[in-house]
Automatic annotation (TrEMBL):
Residue ranges of every copy of the Nucleotidyl transferase domain listed in the record: 29-176
Record-linked SUPFAM superfamilies: Nucleotide-diphospho-sugar transferases
Transmembrane segments: none
One Pfam entry name: NTP_transferase
Organism of origin: Mucilaginibacter pankratovii
Record-given protein name: Nucleotidyltransferase
UniProt cross-references to InterPro entries, sorted A to Z: NTP_transferase_dom, Nucleotide-diphossugar_trans
Length: 299
C-alpha cells in the first residue's frame, strides 16, 4: 500500500481563497507546494491529502485537480472548530483552529494507510520524500514513527532569527524536542540560539524538525485523548495551539511510540522574511538548471 502525503494547508486558505496567484517561485509560477507534490509522487506516495478550511474546497480543486489528474489520487480534509466530534460538549471562541496536531486529527476518518505530514509552504527536497516513503513502506509501525531531521545550518535565514524544534537524538531516536525561538547565524558563520537574553552555541550538524513526520493511523487514537486534555487545560487561552511536537513528546514520555530521526543533508527553503523570496527563487532556478526539476513542472 502506497503511503499518503498529508499537507497542512489550512493556513494558506486565505491566500488561495482570494484566488490571487499564490507566490510563484518556479519558472512558470510554480508554488513551493507544487515541488513537494512533484517530489512525493516521484518518491512513491500514492495519495495527496490537503488539510484545508472547507470554504476553500472549490478554490483548491480548481488549482490542483487540473495539474494532478491522472498522476496521483487527491483528497481534501477539513479542519474546523467543532469540538463535539471529539466528545467535548462546550464551545471555545477562537480566531483560528487548534494547531498542527489538531489538523492531523481532522484526517482520522479519511487516512487508513501510513502517512507523512508536511507544511504547505516549506521546500523540503526530494531526498526527504524518498527517505520518508521508504520508511513508511518498510519500517513504520504503530509504536515506531519518524521525523526527518534537517541540519540546523541548512535551515536558517540570512535575514534574521528563526524558531526551530531542536531534536535531542540518542541511538538514532528522538528523546526530546525543544523549541528554540531565536536561532541564527553569527557573524563568523557559526550557529547560536538565544534564550533569556543569553546566547548559546549550537552545533551546525544538530538535527531540527521542519515539521516532516511519519505515522500510521494509530496516531489518531493515541493523540485524541491528548487533544481533549489540551482543550480542557486551554479553554480560556484562545491562542494556545496543539502542535505535533506536543504529541511526539507525549508518546515518547509514555513509551507508546518512539521516533526514528531520519537524517537528510537536503537544504530546506522557506520564506520567513520577505527578503528570503528571491533566495528561494534562485535556489529553485539552480535546481531547474542542474536538471533536478523540469522547467515546466506539470507539462
Amino acid at each position: 500500500m502506497k503511503p499518503t502525503l498529508l499537507i497542512l494547508a489550512a493556513g494558506m486558505a486565505s491566500r488561495y481563497g482570494s484566488m490571487k496567484q499564490v507566490d510563484g517561485f518556479g519558472p512558470n509560477g510554480e508554488t513551493i507546494i507544487d515541488y513537494s507534490i512533484y517530489d512525493a509522487i516521484n518518491a512513491g506516495f500514492g495519495k495527496i491529502s490537503f488539510i484545508i478550511r472547507e470554504e476553500f474546497l472549490d478554490s483548491f480543486k480548481a488549482i490542483f485537480e487540473p495539474k494532478l489528474a491522472g498522476k496521483v489520487e487527491t483528497d481534501y480534509v477539513f479542519q474546523n472548530y467543532d469540538l463535539t466530534q471529539f466528545g467535548i460538549d462546550y464551545e471555545v471562541e477562537r480566531a483560528k483552529p487548534w494547531g498542527t496536531a489538531h489538523a492531523v486529527l481532522a484526517a482520522r476518518n479519511q487516512v487508513n494507510e501510513p502517512f507523512c505530514v508536511i507544511n504547505a509552504d516549506d521546500f523540503y527536497g526530494f531526498d526527504a520524500f524518498k527517505k520518508m516513503a521508504d520508511f513508511l513502506t518498510s519500517e513504520v509501525a504503530d509504536d515506531t514513527y519518524s521525523i526527518i531531521g534537517y541540519q540546523v545550518d541548512r535551515t536558517l535565514s540570512d535575514h534574521g532569527s528563526v524558531s526551530r524544534g531542536v531534536c535531542q537524538v540518542e541511538d538514532g531516536k528522538m528523546v526530546a524536542i525543544n523549541e528554540r525561538l531565536k536561532v541564527y547565524f553569527k557573524d563568523d558563520g557559526s550557529v547560536a540560539y538565544e534564550e533569556d537574553d543569553k546566547e548559546y552555541p549550537l552545533d551546525p550538524n544538530t538535527r531540527v524538525s521542519m515539521n516532516f513526520w511519519g505515522f500510521t493511523p494509530a496516531v489518531f487514537k493515541q493523540s485524541e485523548p491528548m487533544f481533549k486534555a489540551f482543550v480542557e487545560a486551554n479553554k480560556t487561552n484562545p491562542k494556545a495551539e496543539f502542535f505535533i511536537p506536543l504529541v511526539a513528546d507525549g508518546l515518547i514520555k509514555s513509551g507508546e511510540a518512539s521516533f526514528k530521526v531520519i537524517p537528510t543533508d537536503a537544504k530546506w527553503f522557506g520564506v520567513t522574511y520577505k527578503e528570503d523570496k528571491p533566495i528561494v527563487q534562485k535556489s529553485i532556478s539552480d535546481l531547474v538548471e542542474n536538471g533536478t526539476y523540469p522547467a515546466n513542472l506539470w507539462a
